[in-house]
Amino acid sequence: MKLPVRAQDVASVAGVSQSAVSRTFTPGASVAEDTRRKVLAAAQQLGYRPNALARSLITRRSRIVALVMSYLENQFYPLVIERLSQQLQREGYHVLMFITDMDEAADGVLAEILEYQVDGIIMASAMLSPTLANNCAEIGVPVVQFNRTSSLEGLPRHTVSAVISDNYRGGELAAALLLERGYRRIAFLAGLEASSTSIARERGFVETLASHGVSLAAREMGHYDFGHAQAATRRLFAEPNAPDALFAANDHMAIAALDVIRGELHLSVHGDVAVIGFDDVPQAAWGAYSLTSVRQNLEAMVRATVSLMCEQMQGTFEPRNIVIPCEMVERSTVRPSP
Q: All domains of the chain, ordered by start, with CATH?
C-alpha cells in the first residue's frame, strides 16, 4: 500500500521549508511567488493534496462557516446560499448548511453545529434566541444574522451582528407608490408575527398610509408560505369591500396572491387590484407575473455579511447592525403613472 505524500516530502523536493509548504496551501497566507511556484510544482509531481482536517488540528481553525436556514421555499434564499458560499470561498472559507424550523429558534441544531468546530455562524431566515447567542459568545463563535434582527435585551455584551435591508423604508416606498396611483382600500399580507423583517415592513407601510390620512383596510397573515398566502388572499377578497391594493411582505406570498387574484377571482391586475411584493426575486420579472417589488440589494448584503464575519473571526470586531438601502422596481402589477 502506497503511503500518502506528506508536506515534508513536498518541502524536500521543492527545496523549501515545511512552513513554506503550509503557507502555500493556506488561503491568505504570505508566501513569495517563486516559493509558491516551486511548492506547487513539487506537489503536482508527487501527487500531494493538503489535508484540511489535519491543518485544522494544528491551527485550531476549521475555516468552516455554518449557514443556518429555515426557509428555502422562498426564491430569495437559494440566491443567498449561492452568493454567500461564493463570497466565503473567495475568502478561503467553506459553508456547512443546517436547516431548522422556520418559526422556531435554532437552538435545536446548535450542538450539531458546534460538533464541526465551525469558525462562525451565519443565521439566514432563522431565529436567534438569547440562549444560542450566549452559548456562542461563551465559546467565542461569532454570529452574524442575515436579513434578520433579534431582540437580545438583558444579555451581556455579545458577538452578534446583523445585516438587513432598510425594511421600514421599503414599506414606506410601497405605501407611497400605491397612494400616488390612487389606491385607497389597501391591505397588508404579513409574514410571521415574530419576524423582524415583516414587522419593519408593515410598520413603514402603515405609518406612511396614516401620514396621508389612510387607514389599513385589511390585514392577513401569510406565514411566508405559498399555501397560507393563497388562503389569506381568498379571505381578504371574500369581504364585501375588498381591497383595491395588496402589499405582501415578500415576493413568494405576492406571487401566491397573484395566482388567486387572476386565476380564481378573475380580477384585473392592475385595474381591479394592485399587488406589490418585497425582495425582487428573479421570478418577479417573469412575464406571467411582472410583479412590482421592493428590491433588496443582495450583493451588498452578502458583502457586508462576509466582511463582518471575517472581522469577527479575526478578533477585530465590534458588534453592530448594517442597514442596506432598498429600492422600488415598478412593473405591471400597479397602474402606471397618469
A: 7-59 (1.10.260.40), 64-166+298-325 (3.40.50.2300), 167-296 (3.40.50.2300)
Q: Residue 43: its pLDDT value, please?
A: 79
Q: What value, to the nearest 5°, has the Cα angle with vertex 314 and ends 309 and 319? A: 50
The Cα-based distances of 16 to 20, 40, 55, 247 in angstroms read 6, 12, 19, 64
Helix axes 33-46 and 7-14, enclosed angle (nearest 10): 120
Alpha-carbon distance of 86 to 140, in angstroms, equals: 25
User: Quick one: DSSP state of residue 159?
Assistant: -
What is the pTM for the complete model shown?
0.82
Question: Within 10 Å of residue 123's Cβ, how many Cβ atoms?
Answer: 26
User: Tens of pLDDT along 142-157?
Assistant: 889 999 887 555 444 5
Task: Give the model's pLDDT for residue 327.
Answer: 98
**Identity (one letter) of the amino acid at 263?**
G
DSSP at 241:
T
